[in-house]
Amino acid sequence: MQATMKSSILTTALACVLTTGMAAAQDAPKMKMTTPIPADITTPDTVETRIGTLRFNDGFPTEETVQKVYDNLAFQRGVQSFLTALPGGSAEAFRQGLASIGVDNNQSVAIFEDLMNSRSLFLTGNTESIYSLAWVDLKDGPVVFEVPPDVLGFIDDHWFQYVTDFGRVGPDKGQGGNYLLVPPGYKGDVPDGYFVVHSKTYGNLLFWRGFSENGSTKPAVESIKKNAKVYRLKDAANAPPMKFVNASNKVFNTIGANTYKFYEDIDKVVQHEPNEAFSPEVLGQLAALGIEKGKTFNPDARMKKILTEAAAVGNATARTLVFKYPDPSVLFYPNSAWFTGFVGGDYQFQSQPGVSNTDAMVHFIYYATGITPAMALKLVGKGSQYAAAVTDSNGQRLEGGKAYKLHLPPNIPAKDFWSFTVYDNQTRSMLQTDQPYPSIGNDKKGVVSNPDGSVDVWFGPKAPEGHESNWVQTVPGKGWNVVMRLYGPEEAWFNKTWRPGEMVPVE
Fold first, then answer.
1. How does pLDDT run across 52-99, given as a tens digit for each residue?
2. Alpha carbon distance, N-terminus to C-terminus of the chain
3. DSSP-assigned letters across all residues of 8-38
4. 3-state class of 4 per DSSP?
5. What is the DSSP string of 446-473?
6. Is residue 328 assigned to a domain?
7. pLDDT tens across 288-323, in order?
8. Residue 323 CB: number of other CB atoms within 10 A?
9. Does residue 306 belong to any structural domain of this protein?
10. Are residues 123 and 242 located together in one domain of the fold?
11. Tally of domains within the chain
12. Which helix (H) or strand (E) segment is 318 a member of?
């Protein structure tokens, strides 16, 4: 009873204060200089918003409103930082993943000698390429990268910004050559005889693909081990031996966090890299959250709670931008499930020159990795092209307990090879099934073509009788998605005279 009376008294007192404030504003005397004030520039004493009721005393916020506003501001910054700094979180996850298997210095390379399978967690990796990856740090000066012949590769920096291509679509034109990676702010001499590349960051991801010959990975693996070298320029006269780690079938993770850990990972990038390497606006948002170069990131319980929620909403936003992108221009064809990772065909994620499209960037970065023009531009007979699908011919999500049939018309436009790989919606990495390689393509033995050269592919938990060789397994209870790859894409792909079928549910 006593507590109820106290509550009633406090409520009455608060009402009196608010009423007094309103009366003061409304009953202020008219002065000599008084003019009509537009309602658009004033603030009512009570404002109803999605973050609750905001209260003011003639424009002055109450203490409760101040706290709500600052909590909301931190939350907004947390969500926007999750989205705009997502590339850095993804690159840092790559660094940590490679380090976990011993690829953590300038003399080590991870190579998938027996191809990549679903044990390793990679955003939309494939099962056909002989992947090689290295993390190079330039803090100790320029680094030499001796590129093997006949590879397809690129370099991205610690913020997952494009640095250069090498190999087939790089300046060496697939012949191999020596590249010199120069760190930010470097003032020393740059010797002749190198393809010189300047990076904005110290940390850099080297990523390249070798190609099978007659179904064998051996020739490419031998060439890479023989020719790929990474060492500091100062050690060029006596380079230390290379360490190659066979990453095939290894269990390790290269996918960025969707939780509070994301902000801890971004702090590592901010501390390691120069501020000049990334957007001042994004770095400003991060600084407002306590992530600032030269300072310790040590948020209190309030801020941790806010950032934990911000990561959850940021993650939900990123997932939505992947699976339900709002602009139909993402689709390759009208009324189709097939969509592009590069909205507008721009690897820089701009809606027009000088205008960033953050939604397009998140759509790609949350789903895939590797920023290079070679994946977005029209390069007939070179590079690679990709199309993804997350729904069936009826617009429904792809379910692991159902069966689907996909028809590929004749003359599939891929000079090198075509393939389909199935991914887990949760991880965006290869779906883990009883098949170590959840994929199918024209380089797989036994794949059957129809008499007219077309191909039918089945997806489902059980192999359809008589079509076992053209089947990719899915898992009941698991949502999945699929990426079609065309290596050496031909003109029919770009002018759309050839079009893949849709995922048709089969009873």
1. 999 999 999 999 999 999 999 999 999 999 999 999 999 999 999 999
2. 67
3. HHHHHHHHHHHHHHHHHHHSPPPPTT-----
4. helix
5. TPPPPTTS-EEEEEESSPPTT-GGGEEE
6. yes
7. 999 999 999 999 999 999 999 999 999 999 999 999
8. 17
9. no
10. yes
11. 3
12. helix 301-323
